[in-house]
Structures are given as structure tokens and as C-alpha cells.
Structure prediction request, 270 residues.
Amino acid sequence: MAIRHGPAMATPGMDRVPSAMRNLLGNTKGIIQDLDSSVLLTKIVAEDLEKGNDAESVKELEQATLDIIKFTNKLRNHSFALEALTTTYQPSAEGTNFKRVLKDHMKELESQSPIDPEKHQFFKQFKEAVWKVHHAGEPMPGQEQDDIVMLGTQALANFACPISGKPVDHITDPVRSQLCRHIYDNEAVVNYIRAHAVRTRKNIRPVPCRCAAAGCPKVLTEEILVCDESLKLEIQEYALRQKGSNMDTVADCTYLEEDDDTPLKAHNLR
Prediction:
């Protein structure tokens, strides 16, 4: 698509081009998040299928994971290219071929950072999750000790904010300390750190603000609090597994310990 602009002055149409690109960028990032979430679901489903020894279906999900990783990488490069174009675009008298510009930028990004889906963190996590179903505590064949991938649910240092008490999957703005990896409600921990600074401001030797998690000796500062995509995905996986666990519990309770195995009536579950 090429858009031509006159040499005189900017038009309302010119102003709409950057706005349209920003909207497209936001939509693209949303799709990427959905694809990352689908990898989590694929892994969890694969674990259940492995428990049932359905090797063929697990293999299909393994291939699906590779396909999602490849497609997500292309879409992420498209997002990077679009973001660059959004910040550098300048109207001119000549037409702008946005399709060609984006394609060239994506090709450059792919050549600079080629991807091997089988070495991607998500695929390693998928393989390890399936392996652990029947080989818990055993390293995968050919897996080096330094290459062991920590699954998301194992990586969470805490399941509720030490200050607000909110479960991590109910926190709208989570952050994690880069030192101890404890997860906090952002507003609660920032207020906690600033209140501590006020209390110790007049001390000759100010006492460092300690992590609010019980028994944690690490120091807390606003600078070490981060929220990245890995944290969001780890919390999302934790929430998915919690939901699945609760559903299993309800399913286990739908049958009475009776000779005729009569299902409980729906109203008994209220």
C-alpha cells in the first residue's frame, strides 16, 4: 500500500497514519500475548495426555508448539518493524510503500536474530513438562545440568503479595524483585518502600528496606522491581493450573462412595 502526500501542508489524513499504525501495533501485541498463552495451554494439555499415555496426541501438540513459536517470532518481528516505522515515519511528497518497508525491516531482523524453535525456552519447557509426567526428578536424556528449565509454576517464589495479601493471579499490576524474585502488588510495595524511607530519613545510619516476605533477608528498592512478559506468563500458568486443579477436585466429588456410584445431584454442589 502506497500513500502519497502533497508537498504543501499536512492534511488530516497524514495525521491519521501514525495513529493507525499505533492501533495496529497494539493489536499485534495483543495477538502475540494470546499466542504465548496458547503455548501454556498446549503444555498443560500435553501433560494430561501423557498421563493417559496418548503419545500420538502429545506428538501432535509438540509440533503445534513449534509452529506457534515460529509464527509468534514472525509476528514479533513484524511488531518490532511496525514500532520502528511508527517512530520514524515522516510524511513526504512521495508515496510510502508500507508493505515493502515492513517486509524489508522484518527480513533484516530475521537475519540478525535467526530462531531455532527447538532451542526456544517454550519448547524446552514443553519437553520437560511432558518428560516429568513419568520421570519426575530424572534429567531428560542428553540434558545438561545447566540446561534444566524451571517450569513457570516452580519459579514463583510466592503465591500472594506479602504486603496486600492479594493472590498473585488477582494482582492487576504485579512486579517482582530482581534480587529475591518475590512478587508484589506494585502499588503496595512502592508505598511500603517509601513509608520505610520516611521513617528512617532522620537516622544517622538509615536501615535498608527489607523484603516483606517472611524470612527473606534481601533489600527492596523501587529500582529492582520489574514486570516482564515472563512474570505475566508464569502467573498465568499458575492460574491455569489452579483452575484445572479446582475442576479436578469438583470432578472427584461428583461421585459418592456407594455401591451404585450414583452421581451427586447438581444442587448438592452449591
